[in-house]
Design brief:
The complex is a heterodimer of chains A (about 300) and B (about 220).
Chain A: H1 7-10, H2 26-49, H3 54-57, H4 60-76, H5 80-96, H6 101-120, E1 133-139, E2 144-146, E3 149-151, E4 154-158, H7 159-185, H8 188-194, H9 202-231, H10 239-267, H11 284-302
Antiparallel strand pairs in A: 1-4, 2-3
Helix pairs in contact in A: 2-9, 4-7, 4-11, 5-7, 6-7, 8-9, 9-10
Chain B: H1 10-34, H2 40-55, E1 57-60, E2 64-67, H3 71-78, H4 80-98, H5 106-128, H6 133-160, H7 162-165, H8 180-213, H9 215-223
Antiparallel strand pairs in B: 1-2
Helix pairs in contact in B: 1-4, 1-5, 2-4, 3-4, 3-5, 3-6, 3-8, 4-5, 5-6, 6-8, 8-9
The chains are: A mainly alpha (about 300), B mainly alpha (about 220).
Chain lengths: ~300, ~220
């Protein structure tokens, strides 16, 4: 059977470009990946904040009190055992708040590893911090003085160094878990409103709240621009100029959007006086939990 | 550059909150008198602009990546007081949403990146800018470069003084364990040869773009 495809389409000729072209936009792709990460994080937090768990039912002010008290407590405790006690104390709240416990502790441990253990590791050696050696790593033929640095003859892991790295790791992990517990169970808008109880000016809170919303709009715009550009791209783009051009474009776009937003705000009765919608009133349950957090905080401080 | 929780002692982070709070209050007063209510969304958008700049991790030799803070370009385009506000907002969102930078270290992080960096960048730009495009590019690059370097130095000092001001009875550092002799070279070398160049390049490329395509905007910025 004869087909009706024109002959030139049936010819198996190579693509007319004589050289292979590589599209090097990998780091821009990664930036767009970060944008997706932003969406994912915000939506995951939003999802967990909507669950019917213990912390989700509490007033944002009570949770803010919890955050401030316990992050402060973690920062002043001086030993690993206190940090372990605080971690044990937080765990029931995580379970009762129906946050995915595995994902919660995975994030906490990753933060503890990358921001606590890894940067703290060199400090276990007596090159950084002198102390009681517990494990000999290397024996040099003599100690060295290099400008302001002293390298001892025996380079060893010290007891003080291990304690210091452990304290740093546990403190970072605990602080992250406390912050995560509050952030995952509280919508961002409520958390921002609760900051007014710390006397943060409403003007500032409004900008904070608007910025989080605009981040969605402009990040999407940037991601769309990149997808559109990549779809039409043949050859090597000048990545630096492209980024500068797109960022500048977004900047101009944000300025144009200002007028629209201001008109919309004026149309809804904005007169220049910033007034955020108030949070729901504190219930007896919120007050009881607030009192409980305060009591536990005192208990942790005195032990 | 974002200091996490656990690295700074209360003796450091509480005063840092007080100092940064004074700058926030100053910025708020300044902006309230200078800006119309119309500019409230404008400030939020400046913050998002800085946030966007931080999203671009540019590959640097050694297999790692670095990103610009964007404080210098925001300071050059909108003025340093606006940058104080805009970059602080970004840092607060990053700490609360991503856990990037600690809650207790927020005052110090804002002081380094939202206070020191925009002001130093503005001063350096004013010092080096000329009338022509060539000096403008150089001044923009240096403002980003020196601004970030100053912020990095402040971070290194804040971390490096911890073993002096907060130690246990047996002499063990309770917070960041590295002394100034380690933190200052470690942080500054990494910044001088990699991240400050990225910041300088981003500031220069963006400012050059505006110079070519929207010179009126730069005239407005110079008036700030």
């Amino acid at each position: 059977m004869n087909n009706k495809i024109p002959a030139f389409l049936l010819e198996n000729k190579p693509y007319p470009h004589s050289r292979t072209v590589t599209v090097k936009t990998l780091f821009i792709d990664k930036a767009v990946g970060h944008i997706s990460e932003f969406y994912e994080t915000v939506f995951t937090n939003w999802e967990t904040a909507r669950k019917d768990g213990l912390f989700q039912r509490l007033n944002a002010r009570t949770k803010l009190l919890f955050l401030v008290l316990f992050v402060f407590a973690v920062s002043i405790k001086k030993d690993v055992s206190s940090d372990i006690l605080i971690a044990i104390f937080i765990m029931p709240f995580v379970v009762l708040s129906k946050i995915g416990i595995l994902s919660f502790y995975r994030k906490t441990l990753i933060a503890g590893f990358f921001f606590g253990l890894l940067p703290g590791l060199p400090a276990v050696l007596n090159v950084i911090m002198p102390g009681e050696p517990v494990y000999r790593v290397i024996e040099l033929d003599q100690p060295y003085e290099l400008w302001i640095y002293h390298v001892p003859q025996t380079i060893a892991v010290t007891r003080e160094g291990i304690l210091s790295a452990m304290t740093l790791t546990s403190r970072v992990a605990n602080s992250v878990s406390i912050t995560l517990l509050v952030v995952c169970t509280t919508p961002f808008a409520e958390l921002v409103k609760a900051l007014s109880t710390l006397r943060v000016p409403e003007y500032f809170l409004m900008i904070l709240s608007l910025a989080q919303k605009y981040a969605f709009i402009f990040l999407k715009m940037l991601a769309d621009m990149h997808t559109a550009k990549k779809a039409r791209l043949i050859g090597r783009p000048d990545a630096a100029d492209w980024i500068a051009g797109r960022l500048a474009y977004v900047f101009k776009k944000t300025q144009q959007r200002c007028d629209d937003v201001h008109k919309a705000m004026t149309g809804r009765g904005f007169t220049g006086q910033v007034k955020l919608a108030s949070l729901r009133a504190m219930t007896p349950v919120d007050i009881i939990y607030g009192a409980m957090f305060l009591t536990l905080w005192f208990f942790i401080l005195i032990i | 550059m974002h200091i996490p929780d656990g690295y700074l002692s209360p003796q450091t982070y509480i005063p840092m909150f007080a100092v940064t709070g004074a700058f926030w209050a100053g910025a708020l007063r300044k902006l309230k008198t200078q800006l119309h209510a119309k500019q409230i969304p404008y400030l939020a958008m400046a913050a998002v602009f800085s946030f966007l700049i931080m999203m671009f991790n540019i590959p640097v030799p050694g297999g790692t990546t670095g990103h610009a803070v964007g404080a210098a370009i925001v300071a050059l385009l909108l003025g340093p007081w606006t940058a104080v506000f805009a970059v602080s907002v970004v840092l607060i969102i990053q700490a609360l949403v991503f856990g990037d930078g600690g809650i207790t270290a927020l005052g110090a992080n804002c002081f380094n990146m939202a206070v020191i960096m925009p002001f130093v960048a503005s001063w350096v730009f004013r010092l080096f800018r000329g009338q022509g495009g060539q000096r403008l590019s150089l001044a923009a690059f240096l403002s980003g470069y020196v601004g970030l370097l100053a912020a990095a130095l402040a971070t290194a000092v804040e971390l490096g003084i911890q073993p002096i001001i907060a130690v246990s009875t047996d002499g063990r550092p309770l917070f960041a364990p590295y002394p100034l002799s380690v933190t200052v070279p470690a942080i500054l070398i990494g910044h001088m040869f990699l991240l400050c160049i990225v910041e300088g390049m981003v500031t220069m490329l963006l400012l050059r773009y505006f110079y070519r395509h929207d010179p009126g905007m730069l005239k407005e910025a110079e008036a700030l």
